[in-house]
Fold this protein.
Amino acid sequence: MSSRRDFLKGALAATGAMVGAGATPVQARDTYTRPPEAMGLLYDATLCVGCKACMAACKEANNNPPEFNTVDKLWDTPLDTSGHTFNIIKMYRNGTMLEKDAEINGYAFMKTSCMHCADPSCVSACPVSAMTKDPVTGIVGYNPDKCIGCRYCVVACPFGIPKYQFDDPLGRIGKCELCRHRHKDGHYSACAEVCPTGATLFGRTEDLLAEAKRRLALKPGTVAKFPRGRLRPATEKMLQGQADGKGEKRRHGWRDEPDQIYEGTVGKYVQHVYGEKEYGGTQVLKLSAVPFEKVGMPDLPPYSSAATSETIQHTLYGGLLMPIAVLGALSWVAKRNVKPDDGEEG
Amino acid sequence: MTTHTAPVPVGGPLLNKTTFIAGALIALMAAILLYRFIFGLGAVTDLSDGYPWGIWIVVDVMIGSAFACGGFSVAMLVYIFNKGEYHPLVRPALLASLLGYTLAGAGVIFDLGRWWNVWNMYWPWSANPNSVMFEVAVCITAYIVVMWIEFAPVFLEKLGLKDLKKKLNRFLFVIVALGTLLPMMHQSSLGTLWVVLGPQVHPLWQTPFVPALFLLTAIIMGYAVVLFESCIASSAYRRSIEVSLLNPMAKIMLGVVAAYLAVRLGDVIFRGVIGRSFHLSLEGLMFWLEMACFVAPFLIIGTEAQRRNPARLFVAGILLMLGGSLLRMNGFLIAYDTGPGFRYFPALPEILVTMGMFATEVLIYVVVTRRFPVLPREA
């Protein structure tokens, strides 16, 4: 990684020198890390049964219309995420498809939705701050009232997540925002709320990462306990309802649910938590028994492209120092060469 | 340096075959755009979430604005490197640049999905200085304003506003300096736009050197367009070609091309990705096609004698315009891979709008050169 940075510095120094001032110190911006209270999801493909309840719940929670891809147009049948579909379960198939979670002659599921990157390209790309990352929860949120519809976020995302509603003259960008609009009512992400097996689990990313690593350490085929819904941290502040009986009991701001832990069989995991390091880390993490690139998760470096892009931008334009210096030099030269009667002579 | 002749209007009829065809294309474009604003981008384009940017951005804005660098390239030669002898080329080049940039700016609006929010781009509380797009947008807007001021003397002369022109002349050097700085900034940043795309762009194009590549090719395309336009304008208006000026300018242009090739090849070799260009793939083919467009001009106009031949200058100019266009098209469309399942080929209405944009440029160029003092007086 250091050689990559050195190269970047060299490239910038060269470009800087070309633009006219090589003296500006070059400081590479590091890839951001997740905020400590970052929220996210853990998707465990070995627990997913492909029921797609999460897709229906997502549509309802985000007030999205169904998308039809069959002749009868009876069911919501999106083929990919879109401006109107923020979450989808895709299927991997190979050969006879006899065994679940087998790479050869098997099948497997994979969830596609926003990864909520620690250092998101879409946020860096957005010229008008319509795409922002919450400093506390780390949720990458979208504000249609600022968005100009340039679709740079759509171009920039390596996961192909922000999508534009091309079918609508007033089209917006559509993407998962972890149901942040439901948090004030104590609800968490709808997909995790409804997932019957806990394949999609909501929680603090730090806790989810520990849970993922716990699962990777288990012996495949043995029986182990798996939580469902929301992953509770070891200690959680209980808020009782108000004295008059109004208000609900809350656990750390979330609605109080009974413990939902069940026993299940441990899958043959690939020993990798997808999202722990990819692109500097994401807040949505994934476990799978089929190699990740086979189920549509791109192989990404451990640093973000936003860091590279912003290093270039701020080296060239930081504090407008270089542009002002170059303008000064150009003005001085131009003053000598632009004759006052230019264009009138002859 | 005041030996050259002052520019004069060409005169002649405004209604002819060229302006008629241009007018028809513009009317067609207007109809398509009306449809686009009522029914949305999906109704007239082949855009998808895999290819969210099509030719309206890559051709009309990225390539269109690079073609419009003639004013910048020639003004830099005249006012910064003090080559006063090229002065007769400044006004026509500046006019083409003014039109190219103004239309590129309009083209952006056609492509914006939520154009009514565009004011956020200039609203300090919405600004995102980390965004390359923000820098490009603000810089291009400023440059369009600066170019209109730079070109204002032409209108002031025509309207006989001598006093105002004198006042403007006193500050013209600042405007000229800004007119050199701003294109340097945004033409390089247009390339930086694809850095944040990361591994989605093929390694033959994804490099931190891309701002330098875009800046150098914008300068090259600026000179190439001047060659192209001088030849076209001469044949259309039956004027003699300014070979005495174009010849040495083409030599300077070749120097910039040599510098570009050194940076481009040095970059792919140093990063160890040159081998990827020999893979049997569309990307490999496009890389060498792009390179060929920059190398061939050395064979076509490499010698003094060759550069005295207007036909050779014309062909070399077209090749370099094509090379710079390919660099932009390759990085943003052909070597951009967002994942399987997506294809893009511009839809007919998209192509017609792009043609309409170029037709608008031609129409205004003809009207202005015939009625305003832009082209040098015929000797």
User: Anything to note?
Assistant: Chain B has one domain: 17-339+357-371. Chain B has a mean pLDDT of 92.
